[in-house]
Structures are given as C-alpha cells and as structure tokens.
Amino acid sequence: MKAEKKYSLEPRINFNSINHITICCLSTLNNCVNYFPNITDLNLEYDLNVLYQSVDTMLNRTMSLIQVTKLVIDCSYVSFIYMINILHLAPNIHTLKFGCLSIDEKECATIQQNQSFKLVSNTNIIKNVISNDRCTLEKAKMLVALCPRIENLRIFIDRKDFESIVRILLSKSGSNNRQLFFLCIQHVPKLCIRQLKRLIKSEKLLDDYLIDYINRDLYLWC
C-alpha cells in the first residue's frame, strides 16, 4: 500500500509522490505555482465561501481534482452550493466528510433544479458520508437527494426530526438510499433505540436489521 504523505501547500520542486494535501491558507493556494497530479485525499480548512467564485481556476490549477477520492471539508461553516461545486469538479469522490452545512431551506427546491446539482446527483459515486452538523429534516432531504448511493452514513439528528429523518433514510420508496446498509446516529439518548424499533416495525421499513448503542451513539446495520 502506498504510504500517505500530508503537506501544506509550500513551494517545492516535485510533488508527484504526494497523495494527501491539507489546504489551510487561501493566500498560499492562490500563490502556488506547482502542480499536484496524484492527490487522492483533499482536506480543506479555510473559509470556503471566500473561494466560491474561483474554485474551478484555483483548485484545478493546483491539482488534478479528477483523482480525488476522499474530501474532508474541515471548517465551521460550509455553503451547500459551494460543496456542490467541489463535487462537480471531483466526480470520483467516494468518501465525504463535512462540518456545519449552510442551506437556505426556502431555496431547497430551487437548488435541486440547478443543473450542477442534477449532474452531481446523477453521476457521483459517494458511498461514505460523515456529517458533523446537526441535521434538520430539510438538510437530510437535500443530502440524500445529492448523494443517492450512500452505503455508510454518520450524522447528528435534530431530536424533533428523529423519526422523520430516519423514515427518509430507510424508506424503500423512491430512488434515494436504497443502498444504505450502515447508519450511525451520534449523540442521542438511549430511548431512541425503542423509538427506532417501533418506527421500523410500524412502517415495515426493514426486514432484517441489527441495532447497537455505544457511548451515546446509535448504530444500525440493515
């Protein structure tokens, strides 16, 4: 297995052997004259919205986004529109991790009609998603619509939307999340086990499944 190397973007002569980059300074990225053709893991830690208008020129000028298979957006605020743009440029991502996701819930329907959203939804191969954001019902709907081939999902769920979100994730109707077989709902009370079992049984969401509860995290294999 190829050893992982992790560097900040600093002027160097040859970056062909690097497969993991963390970008934490926008000015360094903007001034970088080198190219990273073999990046597979990309970690973004700066204010993403600052780069929104120039993501295609700045990132594509620095690395081959077509090679990226894992994307971590490790910042306190992530624009949903910006994340769509990144995924549009990096179609081979299979693992996605992000922080607080900003969505104007009044514009959700309009966003889903956007051509970039439709293209990403139809073509992305994202199977593993880790969200460090507290997920509302509208955010859950947008996430499963954008990434319909999720197999492994770790999320925080807004307690008032617990049943509604689980219903969306486990529903057999429609095309979203038919491939989901592992779900981790983080930081929920233990009573959610009984609530989940009751929901699954009453609405016949699953035939076979396994539930576990460890350190305030609820695990479901289905």
How many angstroms separate the termini? 31 Å
Apparent shape: elongated
Helix content: 25-40%
CATH architectural type of one domain: Alpha-Beta Horseshoe
Number of helices: 8
Structural class: alpha/beta
The ordered string of helix (H) and strand (E) elements is EEHEHEEHEEHHEHEHEHEE
CATH class of one domain: Alpha Beta
Describe the structure in brief.
The protein has helices spanning 26-31, 55-62, 80-89, 108-112, 115-123, 137-146, 162-170, 191-203, and strands spanning 6-7, 20-23, 41-44, 70-73, 78-79, 95-98, 101-102, 128-135, 152-157, 182-186, 210-214, 217-221.
Helices and strands in order:
Blueprint: E1 6-7, E2 20-23, H1 26-31, E3 41-44, H2 55-62, E4 70-73, E5 78-79, H3 80-89, E6 95-98, E7 101-102, H4 108-112, H5 115-123, E8 128-135, H6 137-146, E9 152-157, H7 162-170, E10 182-186, H8 191-203, E11 210-214, E12 217-221
Parallel strand pairs: 1-2, 2-3, 3-4, 4-6, 5-7, 6-8, 8-9, 9-10
Antiparallel strand pairs: 10-12, 11-12
Helix pairs in contact: 3-5, 6-7
